Amino acid sequence: MLMAHPAVLTGLIRQYETLRTLHAEDGGPEARQRLDDVAYTLCVVTGTRDVDAALIAARHQLPGAHTEDDSLLPSV
Predict the structure, then answer these.
(1) How far apart are CA 72 and CA 76, in angstroms?
(2) What is the dihedral angle through the alpha carbons of 74, 51, 6, 22, rounded to the nearest 10 degrees?
């Protein structure tokens, strides 16, 4: 599986968190579309289907992540 570069993941996480903090989902169509686009991209680069799982997966892929702690990941 291809892995996104840590800088790309960090940028996407920051963009998503910033847009959520600014309540982009309640904003105009451009803000909502940007939030949707970033969420979709996070899902694609992490191989997940929802943004919450994508954020967890992205953080796990960053350098320094405590990969031995998988308590937030769904059991398979």
Answers:
(1) 12
(2) -140
